[in-house]
Design goal:
Number of domains: 2
Structural class: alpha+beta
Strand order of the largest sheet: 1-2-6-3-7-16
Mean pLDDT: 96
Shape: elongated
Number of helices: 10
Largest sheet: 6 strands, mixed
Distance between the termini: 11 Å
Helix content: 25-40%
Radius of gyration: 24 Å
Strand content: 15-25%
């Protein structure tokens, strides 16, 4: 492990350089051309490391990079299943953000949009693979999958992620750390849109002939918000709403967007049923509910716990303490964990400010995290 750490420190300048290259290739999820360009940069780097590259081309959303390193699992004498490294190259930042948030090194941090979430994590993965390749210690096939639509729900990449994960023995997710900790549990997410149709009328002349869609929506908001149960880790919140046209018109239309976060799959199913059963109080109004669970919860399974204990032991060999954490946020690791595949998350960079103006990576943790990842790929 000490040799891996020494190698990671030697390669830290190139790790930072790759991160900067990826960050400077701005890649907002809704700009296919921009994300595809960033995917192409990562693909070229994978080829330079001897990777067998496949681009999953998408018509509307961004392309997806699959790169394989080491011995082919179908030809391996030991028939050992591959390991899957999972990440994404899209960000929440629009094109032009670099003008006000330049990628720069300052105060022991690498700053810039997408540094923490999660282009430094991608660079950590490439560097860990490089360490093993240069040392001649690539003992099993490693699959690196970098998606381009994670920040907007992974609609295109989810089937590819799940199919690849089924062929692998474990999944390591390169999302940012939770503080200094790896993530062994994540909440699932559901999203719904509630639309209310009422009856428009003149607010002064024909008030009683109107059916106020906004008032009806208010009843609905109170009802669904009451489903929150913090003791179960269940939250249901209405975060965006609108309706009406003018102040003198009884509104005939109103809408709201609802998000639920769940720790238990059964809670997601229950909330789905309750939303589907919603009825309007005013018989002149109608409700339409669309949506559903987007990501199942990532539950701390026995397999994930074993992966973490191994990581914790390797971290001790490297001279630092590694903790585990649960988070309310979700990742593509939710999909793989739900399939029953041991999944360890938060294995990317350490820093703060994901999705915020102060997004940054703490440089001092890059080499130890890279060495730890490389050690896990060996074990």
């Amino acid at each position: 492990m000490r040799a891996l750490l020494a190698g990671a420190r030697r390669n830290q300048p190139s790790l930072i350089g790759l991160t900067r290259t990826l960050v400077q290739a701005e890649s907002p999820s809704d700009n296919k051309a921009a994300v595809d360009a960033c995917v192409a940069i990562a693909a070229a780097h994978a080829r330079n490391l001897g990777g067998r590259v496949r681009i999953h081309r998408q018509r509307a959303l961004a392309n997806i990079l699959e790169a394989r390193f080491g011995p082919r699992s179908d030809n391996s004498r030991s028939r050992v299943k591959p390991l899957l490294l999972l990440g994404h190259l899209d960000t929440v930042w629009p094109i032009g953000t670099l003008r006000t948030m330049p990628c720069r090194l300052s105060g022991g941090r690498l700053w810039g949009p997408g540094t923490l979430d999660m282009k430094a994590g991608v660079a950590v993965a490439f560097t860990a693979i490089q360490l093993l390749t240069e040392a001649g210690r690539m003992q099993r096939e490693i699959v690196l999958l970098l998606n381009g639509d994670e920040e907007i729900g992974s609609a295109a990449s989810r089937p590819i992620t799940e199919e690849l994960a089924k062929t692998c023995s474990a999944v390591y997710v390169l999302e940012p750390a939770q503080g200094l900790a790896y993530k062994t549990a994540r909440k699932g997410i559901g999203n719904w849109r509630i639309e209310v149709a009422g009856v428009a009328a003149h607010a002064g002349v024909d008030f009683e002939k109107g059916a106020n869609a906004i008032r009806e929506l208010g009843h609905v908001i109170e009802k669904v918000s009451g489903w929150t149960d913090l003791t179960r880790g269940l939250t249901v919140s209405v975060d965006v709403a609108g309706g009406g046209t003018r102040s003198n018109v009884i509104p005939s239309q109103a809408w709201a967007e609802v998000e639920a976060r769940i720790e238990r799959r059964s809670d997601g199913q229950r909330i789905e049923r309750k939303l589907a059963a919603l009825k309007a109080r005013d018989p002149r109004c109608t409700l339409t509910v669309t949506g559903g669970i987007n990501r199942p919860p990532m539950v701390r399974s026995h397999g994930t716990a074993r992966l973490f204990l191994r990581a914790q032991a390797l971290a001790r060999e490297l001279g630092f303490k590694l903790d585990e954490a649960a988070t309310g946020g979700a990742s593509d690791g939710n999909f793989t964990a739900a399939l029953g595949i041991p999944t360890l998350d938060g294995m990317g960079a350490v820093g703060e400010g994901a999705h915020a103006q102060h997004e940054s990576v703490l440089v001092e943790h890059l080499a130890p995290r890279t060495a730890l990842l490389a050690g896990l790929l060996l074990s």
